[in-house]
Design brief:
single chain, mainly alpha, MetI-like fold
């Protein structure tokens, strides 16, 4: 009976992963399709990748997305981690966590309109700075809640023991606290990076001339037709994000091994 149950669970897991990744596999395959309309398979070609690499507008949008995602991820990770530490150590944690959940639940359209009004009232011109600022607002609650979950099982007596042995607060934080919560910090940073790269709604409200991100560029392209060039771009995007996740996972494991040693 247990063997049948294990087999059923394996088949179910394969079916779920197939459901999740089969559309992406089809997208990757059709990025090599020689037919421009991309309605059926006609033949293998790499021309669409050559066209993509020669498209300066795509390159500019990709650079803008990476710059915005890097700035937003760094800022949101720092702010979210500090906020999570404050929630774990001081009172009024539950009302503050409720505010974080509200910030997550608020629709992005509402947040985008609010940011647009806020920037216009302050007289700030729309550009990469406003897009990155909006992404920081979007990503910080996710980072804070992720790190907060990691801190739920954290033993603060380790910090007290380190300080009793003569370590200062800053040294205790970097040598004791940070290694313990590092998996949560890294998970929050990866989540923020993914959210920033994928965001379209906030960028639509906060981007200005010369600040077109990759999701905005892709949407402007698919409004007319879905060509293999878009599939090639999506394939490179998926491969790039996957490589970032693999590197981050290896880095997290190396940090974990070093901490145990």
């Amino acid at each position: 009976m247990s063997g049948r149950r294990a087999l059923w669970l394996r088949l179910w897991a394969v079916a779920v992963f197939g459901y999740l990744y089969l559309p992406i596999l089809v997208l990757v395959v059709f990025s090599f399709n020689s037919q421009k309309l991309n309605l059926r398979w006609q033949g293998f070609t790499l021309d669409w990748y050559r066209v993509l690499l020669a498209d300066t507008r795509i390159q500019e949008a990709a650079i803008n997305s990476l710059v915005v995602a890097g700035a937003a991820t760094t800022t949101a990770t720092v702010l979210g981690t500090l906020l999570a530490l404050a929630l774990a150590r001081y009172r009024l944690a539950q009302p503050a966590e409720l505010l974080l959940y509200i910030a997550i639940i608020v629709p992005e359209v509402v947040l985008g309109i609010a940011l647009l009004i806020w920037f216009s009232q302050l007289g700030i011109a729309a550009g990469l700075v406003t897009v990155a600022t909006g992404h920081v607002v979007l990503c910080t609650p996710f980072v804070a809640l992720t790190v907060r979950a990691r801190l739920s099982g954290y033993d603060r007596t380790l910090e007290e023991a380190a300080m009793d042995l003569g370590a200062r607060e800053w040294t205790t934080f970097w040598r004791v606290t940070m290694p313990a919560i590092w998996p949560g910090v890294l998970s929050g940073a990866l989540l923020a990076f993914t959210l920033s790269l994928d965001d379209y709604v906030l960028a639509l409200f906060t981007a200005g001339p010369g600040a077109t991100t990759l999701p905005l560029r892709i949407f402007s392209m698919v409004r007319f037709s879905i060509t293999p060039e878009i599939n090639a771009l999506s394939t490179l995007w998926v491969v790039g994000v996957s490589l970032v996740l693999l590197v981050a996972q290896r880095f997290s494991r190396s940090i974990g091994v070093a901490t145990k040693d």
